[in-house]
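Sample entry (111 residues):
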Amino acid sequence: MAGGSMRILEERYARGEIDAEEFERRRATLEGIQMRIMSSFLIVALALVGLMGAACGGGGTARSPAPAGESPRVGDPAPAFSLPSAQGRTVSLGEFRGRKPVLLYFSMGST
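Predicted structure, serialized as tokens:
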């Protein structure tokens, strides 16, 4: 955008339609506009990179669980585990034996 405007400005100056002082004033204005446009694009690009990083879990790396014996296979019973509940007590998988539990997991990077 500013490249075409700068060319037109230079042509007008070459034809004598504007004097040197007016040429310099308009050239400085065009350069300022170009810098503002470029900084706006940079700010938007950085914001998008930040949003994508936050949406992807903050850029942390996924870690494999420590190996402990054989890995469970499809169809095997789930391994025993306990977790703290929102009310502060400990809930274990064994409490739900014979029922069909639903486990909701929210990644801290997505909340």
